[in-house]
Amino acid sequence: MAELTLHTPLTALKGVGPAKEKALAKLGLAAVADLLAYFPRDYEDRTLRENIQTLPLEEPVCFAAMVAAPFHTTFIRKGMDLTKGRVVDAAAQVEVTFFNQPYVRSALTPGETYYFYGKLTGTGRRRQMVNPYFERAGRNTFTGGIMPVYPLTAGITAKFMGNLQKTAAQCVPQIQETLSDDLRAAYDLAPADFSYRAIHFPQSWEELEKARRRLMFEELFCLNLGLTLLRGRRSQQEAVPFDKQDLEAFTASLPFTLTDAQLRSAREAAADLKQPVPMNRLLQGDVGSGKTVVAAACAFLAWENGCQSALMAPTELLAQQHLKTMETLLGQTGMRVALLTGSMTAAQKRKCREALESGEIDLIVGTHALLSEGVEFRRLGLVITDEQHRFGVDQRAALSAKSGGAQRPHVLVMSATPIPRTLALMIYGDLDLSVIDQLPPGRTPVDTMLIGEDKRQRLYGFVRKQVGLGRQVYIVCPAVDQEDTEGMKAAEQFGQSLQRQVFPDLKVAIVHGRMKAKDKQTVMEDFAAGRTDVLVSTTVIEVGVDVPNASLMIIENADRFGLSQLHQLRGRVGRGQHQSYCVLISNNRNELTRKRLKTLCATTDGFIIAEEDLKLRGPGDFFGARQHGLPQLKLASLEGDMRLLHQAQDAARGVLADDPDLSAPENAPLRLRVEQLFRENGDIFN
Ligand code: ADP
Ligand code: MG
User: Fold this and answer.
1) How far does residue 358's CA lie from ligand 2's centre (Å)?
2) pLDDT in tens, 121-147
3) What lines the ligand 1 site, CB under 6 Å?
């Protein structure tokens, strides 16, 4: 075989055929370098322990023992056989049993010594062990030390992955060091080659800790560098400064008074908009906190200064709702508001495009149809996106590019995901942040409770009662179809059985992501218009649906959802004047799980919930798979690693002070790494 390098495709390795290639691709692994960057999710202590008799019972241990007598297989019945034998050390013996693995008989030779890894049971000198992992002493590769546990997928076993990693480890010396000697000395960081070896195959827990610290630092450091460069490039762009700022004229036209938090956010945005560089601001606020009116204020300022605005929503339904809201909020000002979505007829779209081009529309509300070819603005000055984690960074950029000429529009991003500030600064490092941390007056908090299956019948009674009062009910299931569930409620089947067996007299509808967009929309419109009593759905209703008459949210298998997601779902009720309820159903007895769910019952503060979620699940899960469109952190959990985060930020600042665009030859490996980190999100260096 040709010499192994970081670029060698995995198909060149022994045992990797087309099927394995596909399975590995699922894990994002194509070349040797990918393997080295694929870190274990956990470790097993398979360090060799002495004296079997003194080893603890019922917990995994690794020891050496000699096979004392040949192993024998007994057939119990069809599909069930036992292979038994005895192994010994100087003072104790262990009876080892394997289920349905008759082939181990020939792998365990009497008189030879092996390393065994598994749980011991039994009393006194009589010890037992079932289905241990074993290897010949001296030829052991997966026992006798701390062993990595990798995230796997169908077709890739732990052993197969372990072998690939052993092979890939040869290439560790080829990995380029990205952190200079000075930097490593200043922050006490281990070298790259040491770290990449030790993260996979640590010789001790101390080594592992050193490796983790260095790699975490590198991750945070590179993310920080990338985000800072991104911000720097933006500050060199030009935008139309909105000099006229008669905010009071706008607020006076509103049917309500802004909360302090809304006013503060609007003023922060207004200050940005005065600048000749593009605003790039994240407006964060819990569901119902009133972000839309702040966005409307910005659109008003754009209009005052002769510019058009575009508001982009992730779904048609949301776009339509925004249109209605904007029409109400801006109705008094004389601004012309219009809608552009994919489902409009060709003629309607053409008319809309013409009006945009001639400047007859001041605020256009739409879906990603706004990004399509042929949409031109006369003078686009402001882009607002809602629920930005549903858009990629490149989509935002595509809309920004529509302004034409050298000038870029100002950008306002709205998000209802209450991200803890520290984390927001990292994830949205290129954005400035405004937070609406206060709800409009007069809201009654949603009454939330956690129940078990035993209360289901009573709950159905409660559903009836709410519908009897004229209200509507959501029931959210974790899965679409019975096919993809293990004991979880699936919207399709559960909805049907509810209609037939439990609520034959009520109108039950079903909606989930696998339905056609048009059918989905019909179901949602029926529900919004009050033609349906109970809506059984998956999390497709999570974002943006606004039906003030809905007063009860039931969440099946609530333990399957993240806290922040549950909070988002709960935000679908309590939007009208009616007392609203959220019922979490879960039979899960796990203490941590119950604690999580109880948090939700105890508070409606999205930030507290987010902090809790972050602590319990880590940032990876917190944001869901790449939804936010920025690099996932592999190692660093920001909650626990704040100190390291600050160090990484300091270090990044220091490096950029000497080399602002990271173009010095000695920074080439670093630049490469930063580019790599950002590649999937559009090349930030172009
Ligand atoms: P979200 O932040 O979830 O997008 P919205 O902007 O949709 O929230 O506002 C939720 C509701 O609260 C809307 O019906 C809006 O008219 C109302 N609202 C917003 N601000 C205020 C306020 N200051 N006083 C009273 N009602 C408000
Ligand atoms: Mg909203």
Assistant:
1) 29
2) 987 678 999 999 999 998 888 898 999
3) 256, 258-259, 262, 285, 287-293, 416, 440
